[in-house]
């Protein structure tokens, strides 16, 4: 089982970059994906991120999460088709032959294009964040955020949230396997998956609350707000970091200039 947002120990180009460089890369990718409205351009940005993942030996971990991206993409497209109709009608979600409600939810070109754009933006953001989290150790991220003068409370919330996601995933799988070992049979299909949520969510929430209480006491005992910490290993910008920062800033500035000029290539 591959955990979501779990650091992976490898020797790749992203692992050699400092967290500050990767933060700049994520911010630039996020800004470009949010401002761009051209489908082909967003596909190009997504392809570039996948190529970077392959260069950083993280392509397997990134691709394994595409199932989640596919599910979320279908949901996003359905929501935009229903809520943002416009343009030519291509069909109907409810067939016209259905009595009383047939042909009531049209599938329009405007809603479909908007859904595809939102889906590609979501995929770009997820891939960029994955490359950052998979190649950054939490302690290095904490030290970088402290050097950026980010308040310790926000730093702890961000890091703990990242660390809790894979922990909750592992805990949920263990609880589900324990329920099956006790003879619980939720059934198959969509109904079985829905029935299996309650026996997992209740102990998962209970264990999470207990763990959060222990975590809060641990933070207070270690005195995060009362003393100055000295990192054991402090990372500094190197020539590779400067080169990546220059390239990213150049791409971002070029994109902004083309955007204000109204280029049809980026939308």
Question: Which secondary-structure class do the elements indicate?
Answer: mainly alpha
Topology, number of strands: 2
Number of helices: 11
Low-confidence stretches: none
Spatial ordering of strands, largest sheet: 1-2
* Cα-to-Cα separation, first versus last residue: 39 Å
The radius of gyration over CA amounts to 23 Å
Question: Which keywords apply here?
Answer:
267 residues; mainly alpha; 2 domains
In brief, what are we looking at here?
The chain has 267 residues and is mostly helical. Helix content is 68%, strand content 3%.
Structure description:
The longest helix has 30 residues, at 152-181. The protein has two domains: 1-136 and 237-267, no CATH class; 138-228, no CATH class. With 267 residues, the chain is mainly α. The protein has helices spanning 13-16, 19-35, 39-55, 59-64, 66-83, 109-134, 138-147, 152-181, 189-195, 198-221, 239-260; strands spanning 89-92, 106-108. The chain has a two-stranded antiparallel sheet. Helices cover 68% and strands 3% of the residues. The chain contains eleven helices and two strands.
What is the secondary structure topology, with strand pairs?
Layout lengths: L12 H4 L2 H17 L3 H17 L3 H6 L1 H18 L5 E4 L13 E3 H26 L3 H10 L4 H30 L7 H7 L2 H24 L17 H22 L7
Antiparallel strand pairs: 1-2
